[in-house]
Structure prediction request, 393 residues.
Amino acid sequence: MTDKDTIMLREAIGDYLQWMRSMEYESSQTRMRYGLVLMDFIDFVKENNMAWEDIFTFDTLKAFRIYTSTQHSSDAIRGLSVYLFDHGRIPQPLRRPCYQVDLPEIYEQYLIYYEQSRQVPYSQIKHIRRVLASFSQFLERLTIELDQIKIEHMDAFMAEFHQRLTPGTCKTYRFHLRGFLKYLYQERKILPKDLAPLVVGAPLFAQAQPPKFLRPQELQKLFSNLKLTTPIHIRTYAMVHLVYFMGLRPKEISQIKLRDVSFKKRELMIGERKGNNPTILPVPENTIKAIAAYVLKARPDSQYRYLFLSFQRPHRPISSGTVIQYISKAIKNSGLLSTPYSLRHTYAQNLLNTGATIYEIKEMLGHQNIQSTKRYLHIDIELMRKVLFDEEL
Prediction:
């Protein structure tokens, strides 16, 4: 390893740790652990006299894990490689091992199509890859070509593959299978019939649970703890407003484009809702101000016209998983045990309390059928006691 390579690696690590600090990426303890790992990594690279082009490879990562006694070594090196790749300093980032598992070409093309069109996180691609790998092996074992798939084959595969999985996991994997089948039918014209709507599970009874929502004091605690000191804070602030004051889904938030927001009319066009039911929603004044603050003070310059972008170059549109991640972090930092969907439930309950009908709530939430809306609402015990017994709680 030349002195130039050593200097490049030290500067790269310094830039990466500084970026983590400026973006408030992970906790200070995590950044400290990563720093120790990366300092150890410099010593390892120097001792093995590695050239720059040989540093970020799986062989190097494997050897370093044997060399070092520090924990989280793989995560730290992978994180550094992704940062350097995003900034054009290495040709390819390190991915987790399962990302390298090869599938037949049509499956790999679907994963590329899905990742690019949906901007999904790695964890979701991992789940899709798992179910598609099993599905491919199932068809190969029975010598069934893709254009010969019938619903009986799908039922047989799901009965075999889902045998030891929980109902929730089975539901997720059925969703991934439907996406692949729809791709084969609509995009590739391989299937003569769209089998996706036929891939359904058995009905589950007595599974419904009352939705969780936030009480007024919890909402006050959440909003009082929201900060506006960094670009990430400002983006999170705007996203929390969109969930609570407008009831938007994380996916809907991630797909908002700049042209969808009318600051003058205070309106937001939601173009992609469940059931392809686009709508225009009024935007509360505090929410439009939160969006404006993000656009003016925090949104990076980018060729992408989506509203919410990542803060890593080249500033791509964020995924629904990223929306969930940062809203969940804001809720957790407020000391609350809740989720972003609790804010959506609270929005629905607030509409009910203000006198909106369940049909109006259905339209505001973007539900396809009234049964979905009914599951979002609970009996307001406080309101019921006030009406029936004239009792203040």
The beta strands are 261-262, 267-270, 279-282. The two ends are 73 Å apart (CA to CA). The chain has three domains: 3-94, 100-198, 216-387.
